[in-house]
Design brief:
The complex is a heterodimer. The radius of gyration of chain A is 57 Å and the shape is rod-shaped. Helix content of chain A is 55%, strand content 23%. Chain A is an alpha+beta fold. Among the domains of chain A are: 60 residues, no CATH class; 105 residues, 2-Layer Sandwich (Tetrahydropterin Synthase, Chain A). The longest helix of chain A is centred in the C-terminal third of the chain and has 71 residues. By secondary structure, chain B is an alpha+beta fold. Helices cover 51% and strands 21% of the residues of chain B. In chain B, strand 7 and strand 8 form a beta hairpin. The chains are: A alpha+beta, B alpha+beta. At the A-B interface, helix 1, strand 1, strand 5, strand 6 and helix 4 of A face helix 1, strand 9, helix 4, helix 5 and helix 8 of B. Strand 10 of chain A pairs parallel with strand 13 of chain B.
């Protein structure tokens, strides 16, 4: 059956042809080893030739990868405990070094986690709690990244950055923070209440003052007015009655008698009086 | 690792071998026909469709060689590959909650003044650069979630609790968006953050009551002030009314006194004018007329003869009301 042999041969040839080239995809890197011995690194995508069967292609990621270190407790310079959850981005730049030193991604992650953890521990230990939580977090993380970057370079890895995903307080400290927050809020609530009292008192006092002043001013004006009335009327009386004081005395006295002596008055009159002088004798 | 290129299927080889075997065993005429049919079938798998708002990224033998927009396209099977990515679709992720389920661990974060707040945030983003999205960053969507957490925690971390839960929302949103976009650009994600929206920033459940207490206290403060203002608005107009009343009364008094004085003066003047004409007669007349009116009114009168020596007085019973007025005469 030469046809069968031919077919078999064709299949073998096709397979060899098939195995004599390989494709490096976008987003990946490759290294080629020949019977375990390193040949070449392929950093750009595309098709490449290889020795069939002898060469082995090892592919790895060219994309940026992540290493999410589990949260751990750190001690700050002011001896406060902090739970931080660092997250590191990195990528493979030297595939053969990478392959030799860490072999694969889980190996790389283990090394990166160790390095980042120890750098972060050192960095946190040299800063106060407030700096790590607050404003200076980014420079701090940059400096962690800077130092870790130098160390991971020997694994053929370029470190992109290190960030703290969470920076929290340990559970036992959290409770005391809540206590403090409650105390602080109570303080603010008290302040609001007493401020309310203060304002209210001020307004009431101001009101009472205005009322008193208002009434006093009115009293002053009223008294002035009354005085003017009295003065002017006195002047009028004086102007009129001053013409003849004697006659005024007579008229006013008569008026006074009339007003003062009522029906029940007991009067004893003498016939010697001006009124009754004719009662006795018509002289 | 596979010696063969990625996921390139090996089945066609087996398939082809089977066919060749078949051809060998059976008929020679069937061969070319079958081969043609197989080729056609393979070619037909090369057609693909790109929907609206989508982009197809084409790789030829691993290398990116082009893109295709919406429509029907052809690629060479086995040689070319395509990834279809929607660049219009807005993707959404939630930080601090999932659906209606709050996630306290993810939501709680430290503020700059070492307090704890709970923040819930929505991030909306889309693919801006499909090539980067596909080939530069592993798991871009997971990265977006983790980085959103990093960004919001960094921004809240430099904000005080009072600002965070009251006026700071807009600023926190904007700064978080900027930081998130900046980091995602560093990671070459090809993603563009379209919106960062803080759903809520509030105190953690453990201390919520105390925060509500503050709100209540603030209300009470307002209430106290309003009551005092109410007092003021009640008292001042009344006092103004009272003052006005006093003034008007005083004016009335003044006017009244003056008018009465003038009235009295006029009366006196008129009488005086007559009096001047006949002084003695008028004096007498006034006196007598007054006495007449006066004595007519008085019921209890006693007349004593003037020539009797002063012996009558002791007999008279002088009561407390008795007055010996005019007894010896008022001489006009």
């Amino acid at each position: 059956m030469s046809r069968m042999r031919m077919t078999f041969l064709a299949v073998i040839l096709a397979w060899i042809a098939w195995d004599s080239f390989y494709v490096v995809d976008e987003g990946t890197l490759a290294i080629v080893t020949r019977f375990g011995e390193y040949q070449v690194s392929r950093l750009a995508p595309g098709p490449y030739p290889k020795a069939p069967m002898a060469d082995t292609v090892v592919r790895m990621q060219r994309r940026i990868l992540v290493s999410d270190t589990p949260p751990a407790e750190y001690l700050t310079l002011d001896k406060k405990k902090l739970v931080a959850d660092p997250i590191t981005r990195w990528r493979i730049t030297n595939p053969i070094t990478y392959y030799k030193t860490v072999r694969d991604e889980s190996g790389a992650r283990a090394r990166i986690d160790d390095i980042v953890n120890s750098e972060l521990r050192g960095e946190i230990a040299s800063h106060d709690f407030g700096a790590i939580v607050g404003n200076r977090r980014q420079p701090l993380m940059d400096s962690v990244a800077e130092r870790a970057r130098a160390k991971v370079a020997e694994f053929g890895i370029a470190l992109v950055d290190v960030q703290i995903k969470r920076a929290d307080l340990p559970t036992e400290v959290q409770e005391s923070v809540f206590l403090r927050m409650r105390a602080e809020r109570d303080r603010i609530a008290k302040r609001y209440r007493s401020e309310g009292e203060e304002e209210a008192q001020k307004i009431r006092a101001q009101t009472d003052k205005e009322k008193a002043i208002l009434l006093a001013k009115a009293y002053e004006k009223a008294q002035v007015m009354i005085g003017e009335g009295d003065a002017q009327s006195t002047a009028v009386y004086a102007g009129a009655y001053g013409k003849d004081a004697d006659f005024y005395a007579l008229v006013r006295s008569l008026e006074a008698y009339e007003a003062a002596l009522g029906a029940k008055t007991h009067v004893v009159l003498s016939t010697g009086s001006e009124l009754l002088r004719y009662l006795d004798t018509p002289r | 690792m596979s010696k063969y290129n990625g996921g390139r299927p090996r089945d066609p080889q087996d398939f082809a071998r089977d066919i060749l075997d078949d051809l060998g065993r059976r008929s020679q005429r069937l061969g070319p026909i079958l081969a043609g049919v197989v080729l056609l079938l393979l070619a037909s798998t090369g057609f693909y469709q790109v929907g609206p708002g989508e982009v197809a990224v084409i790789r030829t033998l691993g290398r990116e060689t082009g893109r295709a927009g919406p429509g029907l396209h052809f690629r060479v099977p086995f040689v070319q590959r395509k990834d279809i990515i929607s660049t219009a679709q807005i993707r959404r992720l939630e930080v601090g909650f999932r659906g209606d389920q709050p996630m306290h661990d993810e939501a709680q974060m430290l503020t700059g003044d070492a307090n704890i707040v709970e923040a819930q945030m929505i991030v909306q983003y889309r693919v801006a650069d499909p090539s980067k999205y596909l080939f530069r960053l592993a798991n871009p969507d997971d990265t977006m979630l983790a980085t959103a957490e990093v960004a919001v925690r960094a921004v809240i971390g430099r904000t005080s609790i009072d600002e965070a839960i009251t006026t700071g929302r807009g600023r926190i949103q904007e700064e978080t968006r900027q930081l998130l976009q900046q980091l995602m650009d560093v990671y070459q994600s090809g993603l563009s953050v379209t919106e960062v929206k803080l759903q809520s920033v509030g105190p953690p459940t453990e201390v919520k009551d105390s925060f509500h207490e503050v709100v209540r206290a603030r209300e009470e403060k307002e209430q106290l002030i309003n009551q005092a203002m109410g007092y003021s608005e009640d008292v001042i107009p009344r006092a103004r009314g009272e003052a006005e009343k006093q003034l008007r009364e005083a004016e009335a008094y003044k006017e009244q006194r003056l008018l009465r004085a003038q009235g009295d003066a006029k009366k006196f003047n008129q009488v005086y004018d007559e009096y001047v004409k006949a002084r003695d007669v008028t004096r007498k007349r006034l006196y007598l007329e007054t006495m007449e009116r006066l004595l007519a009114r008085i019921e209890d009168k006693t007349v004593v003869d003037a020539r009797l020596p002063g012996s009558t007085l002791p007999v008279l019973q002088i009561g407390p009301k008795a007055v010996a007025a005019g007894a010896t005469g008022v001489s006009p």
